[in-house]
Amino acid sequence: MVRVEVLYGDRPVSLSIPDDRLMGVYRIKAPPRVDVDRLLEEALDRPVASERLEDMEARRTLIVVNDAARLTPTPRMLDHVLERLRGEVRIIVATGTHRAPTEEEYRELILGHHYGRLRSLTIHHDAKASEFVDLGRTSRGTPVRINAEVLRSDLVVTLGSVEPHYFAGYTGGRKSIAPGLCAYDCVEANHRMALLPDAALGRLTGNPLHEDLEEVVRRVMERGGVRIFSLNVAITGEGRAWASRAGDIFESFYSLVREVEGRYSVRLPERADVVVAVAPGEMGIDLYQAHKALEAAKPLVRDGGVVILVAPCWDGIGPRNFYDLLVDRSPEEVRELVHRNYRLGYHKSAKIVELLERAEVYAVTELEPELLRRIGFRPFSDPQEALDEALRRVDGKVAVLPEASLIVPKLAENNR
What we know:
Shape: globular
Largest sheet: 6 strands, parallel
Distance between the termini: 30 Å
Strand order of the largest sheet: 3-19-15-16-17-18
CATH topology of the largest domain: Rossmann fold
CATH superfamily of the largest domain: LarA, N-terminal domain
CATH class of the largest domain: Alpha Beta
Number of domains: 2
Number of helices: 14
Radius of gyration: 21 Å
Structural class: alpha/beta
Low-confidence stretches: none
């Protein structure tokens, strides 16, 4: 037996796999261990296509930070950004269409040791209830409605992390603004493009959804007259920063993407019969976020195989549109509804159906079993139990993806 350790949320768990059944454990390429404070200082000292942050005059600065669905080391990043700013500072959590952060999340993950000093200066974005400014439409027809706090600021500083994303290509950069601080109808119109084949994991060139997001941000900068300075990090599945870029929100993003792609691409020699897809840490907060691990597994599992999702989902389902559409419906019914009456989140339903038509999904979560059965997932409470059942169910090899939410999956050239 081979023992493989993975994370169930933040808790390590071990899987025992017969030697002759293990294809491999496919981790991101171990990034170098670095002095994170020095890393951030160097990024801020040498910004990409921008003047330094401390040289940018601003009476009022808005710092945009991620919510708890990302592993971004926001408090550490704030350490280095705040000391370079002058004038009034406010902070906004770029929730996009996610729920508001809890106080525990503010205290532990978002503000950290800055909580006592900064909590009163921090607000969260609400895609339905915030005040918005209308800046027209993109060339693809997406309404550009941005949180008014952005336009009230002389300078906007975005803090984020660059990770592979299953339809935007990569997180980070422009996503702090769009969808992070956009109105619900803006996000919904943009995310409909996730149904298009070129809106894919790890793809930016020719990705219509990504290009539309960039157009939203350019519209905010040009018509809204907003200056934006961006600081992003690349992180491991445990949230450890290993690379960073700062400066122009577009150029610094692309610079970091090139480095991330080299580390996060994993290549299997062929499709596996069983794929263990782990959503580590906060990436397993709810089923909505954990779905990203399934997308990484999708191209790597054989037809008729099993994908085992390992994600606690302690916060439940998350935004429910995708889930409610799947409940007690056939794949044909789901597809018809998605294309006839698209609503935000329906792209997840369509992508889940694509997987369920090819493979079984076993879900190791804290969700009520019946919630999972009603969308075609088979529930388990223990990763080893799910794996043992999968090994009984199908012959062939097991591939383990300990950081499935982060990877860009690839197959050997002759097995695509």
